[in-house]
Amino acid sequence: MFGKKKAIVSVDGMMCSHCAAHVSEALSKIEGVSSVKVSLEEKKAIVTFKGELPEEKVSSAIAEAGYIYKGIVYEG
Length: 76
Fold this sequence. Notes:
The protein is an alpha+beta fold.
């Protein structure tokens, strides 16, 4: 995973696996994102990306998908 970073994105409003899939799809479309794993129970998405992952793009993608962006924590 050299060169890749992770971010944990908090998302509110997901109620089912369809919602989780919708959030995953929205985040996957952001340039540089290589994978997204959504936890419905934890209301979080773990995003693996290369380069930059601007918070504005993350919040916009989630809002456009119909959910509530609650914050992001970058790791590594």
